[in-house]
Amino acid sequence: MLDSDGLHLRAAFFRCIRTFFYQQGFLEVDTPVRQPVYLPESNIVPLASEQQYLQTSPELCMKRLLAAGNNKIMQICPCFRKEERGRLHQEEFQMLEWYRTGADYHQLMLDCEVLLRFLLDSLLPQQLPGGGAGHQLFPGVTLTASWPRITVAEAFSRYSPIPLVQALQQDRFDEILVERLEPHLGHGVPVFLYDYPAELGSLAKRRRDNPAVAERFELYIDGVELANGFSELTDAGEQRSRFVQEIATIKESTGREPMMPERFLTDLGQLDTAAGIAMGLDRLFMLAINRQHIAEAVTFSPEDFL
Amino acid sequence: MLSASDLRKGLKVQIDGSPYIVTDFEFSKPGKGQALYRTKMRNMISGNQLVKTYRSNDKFEKAELDEKKMQFLYSQGEEYHFMDTENYEQLFLTKEQLGENINFLIDNMEVEVLFYDSQPIDVTLPIFVNLEVTRADPWAKGDTSGNDTKPVTVQTGYELQVPPFVEEGDRIQIDTRTGQYVTRVKE
Questions:
Q1: CA angle A179–A185–A190, rounded 5-degree value
Q2: Best residue in A39, A45, A82, A83 to probe B by mutation, most B CBs within 10 Å?
């Protein structure tokens, strides 16, 4: 459970993030946490609630709002992912998502840089309760210099014991990412890992000049994955066939059979160019206040109920 | 049948015909990627280490162990003696077999002794134990490190971090799964 200083700091942190997006002209939206459909993604399992599901991300609803003509939207909301529990995981967590029409993933990377610098400048330690040495935000991380960008292919050739192609063939991509790549990412300065193999971004647009990769990136600080953003796939036909594939994979490995998100696909047809990103705010706050475990950065953790 | 999501520190599973205890466990998962259960285990017979990363679909059998409620009597050198309170039979386990459990064992404590092939190999402690603080330094006021805890030693010689108000002679509750302080006990 957070102490009073921690609560004030967390409140200021959320307030600053909202202020940033208001100043940038974003519309704050709220969408249902509990829905009859969920995003069919083979590695993310939803928690059921009566006959419906708690959202794993507000992505489907956010993109429907974009398609309806809203150009810059943001949301902070709880998301739920079944059986994700660990140093950096809790089944329930706070997600920040923002979406822009007429933009691509490079714009989102810029947004990340500007947002984190704004946070650092706005949350001055001396203005916070119990301020001073104990409250230096993001200690050891330089946010002001421009952040390096490294492609997934480069990162594999630098840190992986086997080539990227082989890792994908042997279904070892995630294992090598976690054990070999992530420990090197984002020390001293944040880093963007970008251009993921296309098959690993089921809602991301492929690069026109290199269809083998998707215009997708992840932001890392201190080896911690903080945000996942991409240029949105807006071809409803291709999106449907990717969902068909995902649903088949999910059915084969778990027996679950998610429904096709039909209304989403209909609306997606109205959407032109767009980009969107999801950032884990509990993790970002954890790094800001220099904690090692997500449970130390949230108001109540599951341990507080034991 | 257990699955990878049941893995946690202290779980006992059967692998290749031997009982193993999970000594270290970390859940990792790239946001869009597969869940990875990075696990360190100790063979409860040979003591050998096993380091392995499991995936969500991996399944396990529970270790085939028998349990018997027994009372801890005393330790002598490397030997820790226990007694069956029904038939008064006694047996002992070695310090090595007990591992970190010795930090929480006090005379007359009731524990579950685990048997594999009729041989005692380990004990399961109560989740919470109350131990007496035998050494506590006064808290240095004005400590601005941001850590509002101090180290104390309890009657078994085990050292842990507690809130500053805990004093010598107090009894405190400890979670034996994590080795961490829970609360001060009023008796």
A1: 155
A2: A83
**Checking DSSP bridges between strand B66-76 and strand B110-116, what pairing results, if any?**
antiparallel
**How many angstroms away from the CA of B83 is the closest CA of chain A?**
32
Any idea which fold B128-185 has? OB fold (Dihydrolipoamide Acetyltransferase, E2P) (2.40.50)
> Chain B within 8 Å of A85 (Cβ-Cβ)?
yes
Token pair listed for A219: 């932001």
**Contacts for B59 with CB less than 8 Å, ≥ 6 apart:** B1, B2, B3, B4
Please count the structural domains in chain A.
1
Residue B144's pLDDT band (boundaries 50, 70, 90)?
low
Please give the average per-residue pLDDT across A76-82, as a whole number: 97
Domain ranges of chain B: 2-62, 66-124, 128-185
Q: What percent of chain A is helix, strand and coil (3-state, nearest 5)?
A: 40, 25, 35
Residues B28-49 pLDDT 10s: 999 999 999 999 999 988 888 9
Which strands sit side by side in the sheet containing B79-84, from one edge to the other?
Answer: B90-94, B79-84, B66-76, B110-116, B119-124
What is the separation, in whole angstroms, between the first and last Cα of chain B? 42
Domain B66-124: CATH architecture, name and number where available: Beta Barrel (2.40)
Question: Per the structure block, which two tokens stand in for B59?
Answer: 């399944």
Who among B29, B32, B53 is closest to A84 (CB)?
B29
Complex ipTM over 0.95: no
Instruction: Give A 107-166 residues with CB within 8 A of chain B.
Output: 132-134
The whole model's pTM is what? 0.84
Per the CB < 8 Å rule, is A225 touching B26?
no
For position A246, what pLDDT does the model report?
95
B13's CB contacts (< 8 A; 6+ apart) are B2, B19, B20, B22, B41, B60, B61, B62, B63
- Name the CATH architecture for the domain at B2-62: Roll (2.30)
| A62 vs A59: CA distance, rounded Å | 5
If pLDDT is split at 50, 70 and 90, which confidence band does B147 have?
low
CATH of the domain at A244: 3.30.930.10
Residue A135's pLDDT is what? 61
Distance CA(A207)–CA(A274), nearest Å, equals 14
Q: Which of B30, B36, B53 sits opposite A225 (nearest CB)?
A: B30
Whether the domain at B2-62 and the domain at B66-124 fall into the same CATH topology: no
